[in-house]
């Protein structure tokens, strides 16, 4: 068993308002709640899920007040969860297959609600998100699931992003989805802050839709970055094994395309192709003199998807690189792309090697900025954290013996509101110690990246994905 295996071990315990032991000092100004999402049950009906992305969703909440930290966690009690617990069956997901009929249903009308990827605030509701069109509302105080969030529109899509982007200035949340069928289309939409409706912004028809996980947003543009990891959707309907992602193929000859849309007109203003790369996460984007600048975490190819199958992370077959797979799966590279709008070539520059789960300060989104934060993956035997200067490539890092850190989230010191102090604040990240098999919430100083404190959780937290800090959630 690999040393990091507690990260893929199911967690049974659910806590409600547990005060955590704090070491060091957590700033008293830090007020509100960090809510994180991720899989926490990896066996259903005596069978292991096939991919890390397919475990059952659990929410974890760290509430901060006066230097104290209170922890709660709860499985998201969805239809998928009930079916798993009561019937021992899994509904169709990312890579874990149901039968033929199950798969057909999942694309036609009954997608899974196992929303284990991210959380967001949308139209005043708190929602858990995944890549099917089902958004599960939850109570931020108790973490109880409250059923689906429905939109008052008839926009159709089958695969959606769990990385919606809120634009405070425009007063809308932007997202996209892919519609599979006889015609395949990407639809970009905006949800106004004041009503639960997706207003169509742009659509584009494609022959082979790509697997898209996140996108780039600037004040004037939406950029869909389309890697050549594509599917013939008719394959979803063929009998035989496989979940959603098993049908995608790496077609490097297509290159990676940047589809740039004007946000006000919906017009496609550029679509340059460049050398093939794969990615899950954009970091940030902004306007430049001749186009847009997009920072993202790039991979040479889509082998990373295979690297995260359970068989691979547990040291079996399937890892693409070497004998110790996760976290030494394919290496994510922080790269900057200059995407011109005048028909010129895309330029690429590497900023930092060995990064995933990137974040920026909320005030830095969609504008020129200085710092990206992420999980550092460049060493063996652990995952660290990195703060990268995206201009110079210089970094500050945090590492710990046998420690596996997850997504770091920057929370600004409220006194910096309206100033240019981009990194004045704290960075919050979950860290699993695989020796003690316990997790903690680490608090780093945003400027120096030195540890300010840590709050100990009395059990392990399985490796998760994304979260959000909600300053208004104070109970
Ligand atoms: Fe993600």
Architecture blueprint of SSEs:
Blueprint (H helix, E strand, L loop, with lengths): L17 E2 L1 E4 L7 E10 L1 E2 L2 E2 L7 E10 L2 E8 L3 H9 L12 H9 L9 E5 L2 E5 L6 E3 L6 E4 L10 E2 L4 E3 L4 E8 L4 E9 L6 E8 L9 E2 L3 E6 L2 E2 L18 E2 L5 E7 L5 E3 L2 E2 L3 E11 L2 E9 L3 H5 L2 H4 L19 E8 L6 E7 L1 E5 L11 E6 L7 E6 L5 E4 L4 E3 L3 E4 L12 E9 L4 E8 L5 E6 L10 E4 L5
Antiparallel strand pairs: 1-7, 2-36, 3-6, 3-37, 4-5, 6-7, 8-9, 9-10, 10-11, 12-14, 13-14, 14-15, 15-16, 17-18, 18-21, 19-20, 21-22, 21-23, 24-25, 25-26, 26-27, 28-29, 29-30, 30-31, 32-34, 33-34, 34-35, 35-36
The structure holds fe (ii) ion (FE2).
The site of fe (ii) ion has 7 residues, from strand 24.
Distance between the termini: 40 Å
The Rg value, from CA coordinates, equals: 21 Å
CATH topology: Methylamine Dehydrogenase, Chain H
Taking pLDDT < 50 over at least 5 consecutive residues as the criterion, the unreliable ranges are 317-325
Strand content: 35-45%
Describe this structure in words.
With 475 residues, the chain is mainly β. The chain has one domain (5-470): YVTN repeat-like/Quinoprotein amine dehydrogenase (Methylamine Dehydrogenase, Chain H, 7 Propeller), CATH 2.130.10.10. The chain is 6% helix and 42% strand. The strands form nine sheets. Strands 2, 32, 33, 34, 35 and 36 form a six-stranded antiparallel β-sheet that branches. The protein has a five-stranded antiparallel β-sheet with strand order 1-7-6-3-37, with no helix packed on it. Strands 12, 13, 14, 15 and 16 form a five-stranded antiparallel β-sheet that branches. Strand 10 (136-138) and strand 11 form a beta hairpin. It starts with 17 loop residues before the first strand and ends in a 5-residue tail after the last strand. Mean pLDDT is 90; it is low at 317-325. Residues 117, 163, 213, 280-281, 465-466 line the site of fe (ii) ion (FE2).
